[in-house]
Amino acid sequence: MNIAFRQGIEIIERLEANGHEAYFVGGSVRDTLMGREIGDIDIATSATPEEIQAFFPKTVDVGAEHGTIIVITSEQESYEVTTFRTDGKYTDNRHPDEVIFVKSLEEDLKRRDFTMNAIAMNKHSKILDPFDGEKDINRKVIRTVGKATDRFREDALRMFRAVRFASQLSFSLEADTFLGIQEDKELLENVSIERKTIEMEKLLLGQGLKFGLELLVTTGLHAFLPKLEGKEKQLLELGDMPLQHLKNRSAIWTVLSYVLKLEMHEVEVFLTSWKLPKKINKSVLENLLLMEQVQQFSWNKESVYRAGLERSLEAHQVMCVLGLDEETSKKKINELYDKLPIYSLKDIVFNGHDLMELASGKRGKWISEILADMEMALIHGEIENERAALKEWVYNWLQKYDRDY
Ligand code: ATP
Ligand code: MG
What we know:
Layout: H1 3-17, E1 22-25, H2 27-34, E2 42-45, H3 49-55, E3 59-63, E4 68-72, E5 78-83, E6 85-87, E7 99-101, H4 105-110, E8 120-121, E9 127-128, H5 133-139, E10 141-142, H6 148-154, H7 157-169, E11 172-173, H8 175-184, H9 193-204, H10 209-219, H11 232-238, H12 249-259, H13 264-273, H14 278-297, H15 301-307, H16 309-321, H17 330-338, H18 352-358, H19 365-379, H20 387-400
Parallel strand pairs: 2-5, 10-11
Antiparallel strand pairs: 1-2, 1-8, 3-4, 4-5, 6-7, 8-9
Helix pairs in contact: 6-8, 7-9, 7-10, 10-11, 12-14, 12-16, 13-14, 14-16, 15-16, 16-17
The structure holds adenosine-5'-triphosphate and magnesium ion.
């Protein structure tokens, strides 16, 4: 059994010692059966949130009303432990009006979204699989637990989760699940943008991206995502790009903005409609501007100096993914940066203060002008970053521009 499950077993044993049932559930069981790397480990138990809190010395209440308590082990690992529950009625196509704690594992598994996610595993790795999830995993299909349209009308997010899982796992959608999404796609309107953004990013990073995007478009779900209606062609184009290589959220959104051929002023509107943090918006705009410059002038000392190493590497990665730069290697960007004589004005050994001294304290716009020119002369290797050389260069500059100082 995977090392990550070992401490989870201790949690299960403690719950059992107190007369309760407890199992591994959800993504970690699915991924284990598939031989994939597992993410976080969830445990389902018959114990109530209050009992869970009483059994373990270190817990965090992250939603006791929904039955979820985080248990922190002696080795500081966190496990989500959730009381067996079923969901009450859904009136907003997203959240149950109430959750009802129950005593049976099967009832808990029944409320879960897809058969592959409704499998439990006990501490001896025995699989409990009332909805034949393992069979669906082997067939590589995503199938709702119960009737698709019923499950999507309860919680519309499940439609987008289905397509996102298809992209991550390269699974197809079972016929009723697919048709259910086509039928109920409008209900995605009831899902918050933040949740859509999370699912969209996971979909875009999926190993089966091409297929995931095809499903997004053929189900018609894309039309209920911010500003993607009518963008079928561009979305399908994305499917041929190796987005899995992208490291940062801002890189993903740069690729998307680029493929959608957005004008600069439209980019901000687009990103805001996905409610992305301002910091990401800013990075995307910086990437796009840098990419534009590089396409015009190619990578050079000045571009990496102005953008900095991190931004340059991100924009370079995006350009590679988009197939815009076949020649430049990551190594070349690193080299250009490493060879820079200075990294900011602060590194110049002759500063504004020195200039003022030279000009007997006379201030003026000329100081920033001369520093900007000096900065570029240094970057392009026209002068050494050395005091005597810089002083001479300043005299020459003042003469050339006919200044008094
Ligand atoms: P991931 O690898 O993305 O974490 P996961 O399957 O673990 O995938 P989570 O969002 O972590 O997904 O949810 C854990 C489990 O909770 C799921 O496997 C599923 O059983 C259940 N679940 C999550 N969201 C829903 C939902 N909207 N409707 C029904 N069941 C859900
Ligand atoms: Mg999970």
